[in-house]
Amino acid sequence: MVVSLELKSNMELPNVRNVNKGKKRLKKHRFNKNDAIAFKWYGEREIGFVYECYHSKDGWALYKVKSVSKPGCIYPDMELDDPDDPYCYISSILSNSLTDGERELIKKRLKRDIKINVIETPKETKVDKVKLKKAIQKQKDFINGNFW
């Protein structure tokens, strides 16, 4: 049995309502670093906090977001109400609707994240140059076989 498919060259595409009509891409940041936000990721509502604020090459305001509802997930290059992708955006309306419990959960994760990211720099110690030269010479002697 042979099945043949015929493609219609004059097939019209259906009219789709423009979801992003009237939205503008923003160049100024509305959220600061460590602000609690709610965002959509493929139609699913998630909560998190702004990890980093920066600008794209074109000058649009972008955010790197750490998720609290899905621990370990970091979402880079997210725009506020992104007009190009209706399923992936940080919504200022959603962020205003955060409950007190969600805000407390974000604050706890944020405090934990700040503690993890803090790296203590070692204090400068005075080094005795004579002892250092002797230690270097001892290592060179060992490598060259002069350790007897």
Summarize the structure in words:
The protein is of the alpha+beta class. Helices cover 26% and strands 22% of the residues. The chain has a domain of 81 residues. It has a five-stranded antiparallel β-sheet. The model has no long low-confidence stretch (mean pLDDT 77).
Number of extended strands: 5
Q: What helical percentage do the residues reach?
A: 25-40%
| Amount of beta strand | 15-25%
Order of helices and strands: EEEEEHHH
* CA gyration radius, whole angstroms: 28 Å
Strand order of the largest sheet: 4-3-2-1-5
Shape: elongated
Largest sheet: 5 strands, antiparallel
**Termini separation (Å)?**
90 Å
Q: What is the oligomer described by this structure? A: single chain
- Low-pLDDT segments, ≥5 res: none
| Tally of individual helices | 3
